[in-house]
Design brief:
The protein has eight helices and five strands, in the order E-H-E-H-H-E-H-H-E-H-H-E-H. A five-stranded parallel beta sheet has the order 2-3-1-4-5, with helices on both faces. Helix 3 runs parallel beside helix 5 and helix 4 packs across helix 7. It starts with a strand and ends with a helix. The chain binds thymidine-5'-diphosphate. Thymidine-5'-diphosphate binds next to helix 4.
């Protein structure tokens, strides 16, 4: 008995948290137990790694960055994600290994295949049953994100070209694994998106 494993992906500002809230509500209305978590930082150790990745001043090279994301993911997988799935609990993650392939592999211009292999090593090959990619033009997503008025972290300080490359990276990943990915146009209304996502998840539950 394994729970359903769903990850949400997309560039910063596409509205993942809102859609995760709505899906969590839907699954609990169906009487399912869910665990919602996120990367980087879904564990206590992960919070320290998140802090290094996003808020530490000073130089951090692309490979070191990729390895820190992988370390966070390995620990999260071992101590939270896998135990929950084994108990039959559905796990919904705000970002998972496709974030590393898109941001570090494509955005930072490391080798996407190597980053995928590194991420698979971190989680011992565990892929989600479904990955929901919220897709939106990078300029529009950043404009939405910047409306929150929060101080940008290290990754958020990247330029629009970086996020457009990451977005294209995600679309390529989705095209390569059409059974796992569900691409949703994130420029449409919140409720419209939620309805599409519920319908796709309900299909999996049949
Ligand atoms: P996230 O927590 O989703 O952002 P926020 O809470 O600030 O909205 O992710 C933090 C940043 O880390 C985000 O810019 C995406 C980036 N990231 C990677 O570059 N690689 C990864 O593997 C992951 C999980 C996140």
């Amino acid at each position: 008995m394994s729970g359903l494993f769903i990850s949400f992906e997309g560039i910063d500002g596409v509205g993942k948290s809102t859609q995760i809230d709505l899906l969590e509500k839907h699954l609990s209305q169906l009487g399912r137990k869910t665990l919602r978590s996120f990367e980087p930082g879904g564990t206590e150790l992960g919070q320290e790694i998140r802090n290094m990745l996003l808020h530490r001043k000073g130089q951090l090279g692309a490979r070191a960055e990729a390895l820190l994301f992988a370390a966070d993911r390995a620990h999260h997988s071992d101590t939270k994600v896998k135990p929950a799935l084994a108990e039959g609990i559905d796990v919904i993650l705000d970002r998972y290994l496709d974030s590393s392939v898109a941001y570090q592999g494509v955005g930072r211009d490391l080798d996407a295949k190597q980053i995928r292999d590194l991420s698979l090593f971190a989680v011992q090959g565990l892929l989600p049953n479904l990955t929901i990619l919220l897709d939106m033009d990078a300029a529009a997503a950043l404009a939405r994100r910047d409306k929150t008025g929060n101080e940008p972290d290290r990754l958020e300080s990247e330029k629009v070209e970086f996020f457009e490359a990451v977005r294209q990276g995600y679309l390529k990943l989705a095209a390569a694994e059409p059974e796992r990915f569900f691409v949703v146009d994130a420029s449409q209304g919140i409720e419209q998106m939620a309805e599409l996502i519920r319908a796709r998840v309900d299909e999996l539950l049949k």
